[in-house]
Amino acid sequence: MSHTHIPPVSAGLRGRCPRCGEGRMFSGFLSVVPRCEACGLDYGFADSADGPAVFVMLIAGFLVAGVALWMEFTYEPPWWAHVLVQGPLIAVVCLPMLRALKGVLIALQYANRAEEGRLEK
């Protein structure tokens, strides 16, 4: 099958196959299926490595630190109030973003035919 015009960001955010847009990309929260149940795309190429985690740390770190600073300068709460607010906020911000970004990076790998670099002699 050839590449169709499924937008990689859309397919990745929805956790759908980057080739057909129908099959699921994940079998669990972050586990990638071996192949698409709709079109048979082999996900052997999919290796997002630490990319999603790096993006999540940068984006969520900025957001959560901003909320912590705002909270500190506005209300001057005790340290335990920061723990009560920031702990759940970190989970709520990071977990959905991690799955979405992993899906987007895998879909972009497929769309751009990205693969491991090789040295030719």
Supply database-style keywords.
single chain, 121 residues, mainly alpha, 0% strand
Write the layout of secondary structure elements.
Elements: H1 8-14, H2 51-75, H3 79-111
Helix pairs in contact: 1-3, 2-3
Notes on the structure:
This protein is mainly alpha-helical. It has one domain (8-111). 54% of the residues lie in helices and 0% in strands. The chain has helices at 8-14, 51-75, 79-111. The two termini are 31 Å apart.
Brief digest:
With 121 residues, the protein is mostly helical. The protein has helices spanning 8-14, 51-75, 79-111.
Number of E strands: 0
- The radius of gyration over CA amounts to 19 Å
From the helix content, strand content and strand pairing, which structural class follows? mainly alpha
Largest sheet data? none
Number of helices: 3
Percent strand equals under 5%
Distance between the termini: 31 Å
Label the overall shape. elongated
What number is the mean pLDDT? 93
Instruction: Report the order of strands and helices.
Output: HHH
Provide the low-confidence segments as ranges: none
Number of domains: 1
What percent of the residues sit in helical stretches (DSSP H or I)?
A: 40-55%
